[in-house]
Amino acid sequence: MRILFIGDIMGRPGRKSVPRALPSLREEFGGFDFIIANGENSAAGFGLTESVMNELFGMGVDILTSGNHVWDKKDIIPLLDSEKRILRPANHPEGTPGHGFGTFEKNGNVISVISLQGRTFMPPLDCPFRAAEKLIEKSKTPCVFVDFHAEASSEKKALAYWLDGKISALVGTHTHVQTADEQVLPGGTAFISDVGMTGGHGGVIGMTAESVMPRFLYGTPTRFEICDADIRFQAVVIDIDDETGRGMDIRRINISCDN
User: Fold this and answer.
1) What's this model's pTM, rounded to 2 decimal places?
2) Does the chain have fewer CB atoms within 10 Å around its N or its C terminus?
3) Is the Cβ–Cβ distance between 118 and 128 less than 8 Å?
4) 26 has pLDDT over 70
5) Domain segments of the chain: what residues?
């Protein structure tokens, strides 16, 4: 089974780069069994809307994971219960709208996907380690994919080792900076600390430097503006043994979409 996971899609520049990058990637890798993307920043950099959701699904994305910004656009919240292809962090308390775990089937392939949020330098939530263990037990397939939306690379690596051999892959999101530590851990779990960001890299993690700078210089709130310079499509391609669920290979993708 071959999975394409697209790093945090940042606003319109990120959305526009997806259909530009996908055709060549499909040709290079012979297609993908599932395309998963983190979509929590896809609507103007903060949150997700129904129209943006439909746009991404129309591009070929099969499943959308998220993180702390999934709640930023209020109109998406009612859809979290009915649209099971959108996952909010599973370690929210019981009773939170939406689903943090799902099992998906496509062309005879089956995969379970878990969305989790970290706790280090992040808003407090239930333990992602314990939440992951409980959800893995519910999976009806050995192929289990985790998007861990977290700030600290140490927390991401710790969870990957905790789950090594129990899941097929754990990819980190949230920092918008692609890391160069992709690997398959000893137990067979493919891992990367952060997949990166699909959007404008010519500013500060997806926003223009000019709009971000006053917050650092003066400590005053400012309105961030989406960066549309140096647009890149960042992702990983992960191969999974669909019989054992072991991760076999992970490759970083970083494509310039400016031209």
Assistant:
1) 0.97
2) C
3) yes
4) yes
5) 2-256
Whole-number average pLDDT of the chain: 97
**C-alpha closest to that of 196 among 251, 249, 250, 233:** 233
Whether residue 258 has pLDDT greater than 90: no
For tokens 């905790």, name the residue.
162
d(CA 209, CA 226): 10
Q: How far apart are CA 158 and CA 208, in angstroms?
A: 33
On the question of pLDDT at 72 being above 80, the answer is: yes
Token readout for 221 is: 């709130």
What amino acid is encoded at 35 in this protein?
A: I
Distance CA 182, CA 213 (A): 32
Fold of 2-256: Purple Acid Phosphatase; chain A, domain 2 (3.60.21)
Q: Are strands 144-149 and 109-117 parallel, antiparallel or unpaired?
A: parallel
**201 is an active site residue:** no
Secondary structure of residue 68 in the 3-state scheme:
helix
Q: Is the dihedral of CA 55, 45, 200, 8 positive or negative?
A: negative
Report the distance separating Cα 250 and Cα 159, nearest Å: 18
